[in-house]
Amino acid sequence: MYFIFYSQCYFLFTFLLKQAKEPEQLRKLFIGGLSFETTEESLRAHFEQWGSLTDCVVMRDPNSKRSRGFGFVTYSSVTEVDEAMKARPHKVDGRVVEPKRAVSREDSNKPGAHLTVKKIFVGGIKEDTEEHHIREYFEKYGKIDCIDIMEERSTGKKRGFCFVSFDDHDTVDKIVAQKFHTINFHNCEVRKALSKQEMNAISSGRGGYGGGGPGYGNQGGGFGGSGDGGYGGNRGGKNFILSKLNVPLTLWRYCFKFELPFQDMEGVEITTTLEIMEDSSQTMGQ
Fold it and tell me: Where in this chain does the record put each RRM domain (predicted)?
């Protein structure tokens, strides 16, 4: 009995550890251009071809319940996200859709966060960092077109930053989403490289979440609002027990073969594996 229980706990712990190494934000895709007829079921059926989904949602107007024309799917691993992006273009319910790596709420207001670009700015480049260091680091993300290390014209001294261009905008989105980068043992700042025209468009108010230009939710509604209207608001996906840990209900049932008394409660926050085990042990002892 105890052997089975602890082996199931170990299985759950390894699952949670994997998710801790791969945060949900890195496993989530924004799906734009959805048909208004597309449902969670048809969206899930399509994207499950490339991996196991832990969440799938079509964003709807909180009043009319009509689709806003976009949604999100979350995979169980970053590798599955990569496979789905390699399979572009995607067609759901007879309509070509636009999958992009989701931008976190904290990054959504940064300049150009939702723009599609193939070039990144890399700051914090030190004097001992050469082109081969930069190439070796970034080529693991995707094919590099060119690397431009900026130098002083008169002295040839490095100015401390460079630009790296790729053949696919998804490579840029993946790199920027990861946030922390260390090149040649030095921490570097990485963000999307924007042209003057793109910067002017941003300053004039075009684009972004809920805007009139490119961006998430340009058919009405925002991202991350409160209540049922925003993804990541007060109400989470129906197939999760614990919003903090993102443990699918089916996985919990597989591990423990019983219903937890708080499985349908909202706002439950168990943040450590120890607390999970204690609650599970108490439930089994009842």
Answer: 27-110, 118-197
